[in-house]
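Worked example 3 (structure in, sequence out).
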């Protein structure tokens, strides 16, 4: 379909397509938190971090994602009990994104150094999160700092997705609304 966007893992075995949509359906944030940094290090994927150890994240409804190839190499882990389920590939340890543990909240925060969604789909960065945890001083960008700005943008994308019942069409969850793979728990 025109306007959609394909991306793949570093080795190319996993491929996915993101359905068309403009900035109103996406919330782009940079997160500098230690968990996001740890996730990248755990995978040996530091190259997917941006300046200052940030993760460039585009939050969208996960129902917009179609897995075209390599779904068998999808795996998921959690770094803390309350933290998100972090999806990655096992073929080449590419981080894909962070999602909720249940299809009730059908978002995924795609790592945009991997997904490379164009700005026409994501809009500009709306907020930065945990900027004080950055590995170096990074300039302020976006309209907001901190959790409140992120929650606003998240709600703008996620409330319509929840009302549409997108959880039932999200490839990361099975019919029981739980992740399709066993989520590994990595100890701190
Ligand atoms: Zn791969
Ligand atoms: Zn983070």
């Amino acid at each position: 379909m025109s306007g959609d966007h394909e991306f793949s893992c570093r080795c190319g075995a996993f491929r996915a397509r993101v359905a068309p949509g403009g900035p109103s359906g996406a919330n782009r944030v940079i997160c500098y938190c230690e968990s996001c940094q740890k996730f990248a290090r755990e995978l040996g994927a530091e190259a997917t971090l941006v300046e200052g150890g940030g993760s460039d994240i585009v939050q969208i409804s996960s129902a917009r994602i179609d897995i075209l190839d390599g779904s068998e190499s999808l795996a998921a882990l959690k770094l803390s009990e309350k933290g998100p389920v972090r999806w990655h590939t096992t073929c080449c340890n590419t981080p894909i994104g962070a999602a909720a543990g249940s299809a009730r909240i059908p978002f995924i925060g795609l790592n945009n150094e991997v997904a490379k969604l164009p700005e026409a789909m994501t809009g500009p960065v709306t907020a930065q999160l945990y900027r004080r945890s950055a590995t170096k001083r990074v300039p302020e960008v976006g309209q907001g700092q901190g959790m409140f700005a992120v929650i606003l943008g998240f709600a703008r994308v996620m409330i319509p997705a929840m009302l549409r019942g997108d959880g039932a069409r999200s490839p990361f969850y099975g019919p029981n609304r739980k992740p399709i793979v066993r989520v590994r728990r990595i100890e701190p």
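Notes: DSSP finds four helices and twelve strands in the chain. Residues 5-168 form a domain with the Metal Binding Protein, Guanine Nucleotide Exchange Factor; Chain A fold (CATH 2.170.150.70).
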